[in-house]
Design brief:
The chain has 138 residues and is mainly β. The chain is 0% helix and 51% strand. The protein has no helices and nine strands. Strands 1, 2, 3, 4, 5, 6, 7, 8 and 9 form a nine-stranded antiparallel beta sheet that branches. The radius of gyration is 27 Å and the shape is elongated. The N and C termini lie far apart (84 Å).
């Protein structure tokens, strides 16, 4: 189980497994599940939350993956990113560093730019001069 805080986008970028895979996010507002299909995305925002990768062997309940390894944290173009790789279980002859599923977690490091207004606001035109008859007489 890995611990996070703040807003992150979780994307499944790869999966090569004999068993179904998923990511489970648990936080103060409940549990959310991201299926282990490449391209699947889950937006998470919370003061604190946890992430667990799980697999489901045929005919059995979901089980935590054997190993989840966080890669280095990188920053580029205002986005902090980290890859997570995970191995669901060990089999004889299977390399211990075998990767069954890969997730990418992205977090903006700068606030998003403000959206422009839906309709441009035109400046008020300067008031027209008063006709001579309405001007104040000294």
């Amino acid at each position: 189980m890995l611990r996070f805080h703040g807003a992150w986008r979780i994307t499944v970028v790869g999966c090569n497994a004999d068993f179904a895979q998923r990511a489970v996010v648990r936080g103060p507002y409940g549990t959310r599940v991201l299926p282990g299909r490449p391209g699947a995305v889950l937006e998470v925002d919370g003061e604190h939350w946890t992430l667990t990768l799980e697999h489901r062997p045929r005919g059995r309940d979901w089980q935590p993956n054997l190993r989840t390894t966080p890669g280095p944290l990188t920053e580029r173009d205002g986005v902090r990113s980290r890859l997570l790789t995970s191995n669901d279980r060990h089999w004889p002859g299977k390399p211990r560093d075998y990767v069954n599923v890969v997730l990418r977690l992205d977090q903006p490091t700068v606030p998003a730019a403000a959206e422009p207004p839906a309709c441009p606001v035109a400046p008020h035109p300067a008031p027209a001069p008063l006709p001579t008859a309405l001007r104040a007489v000294p």
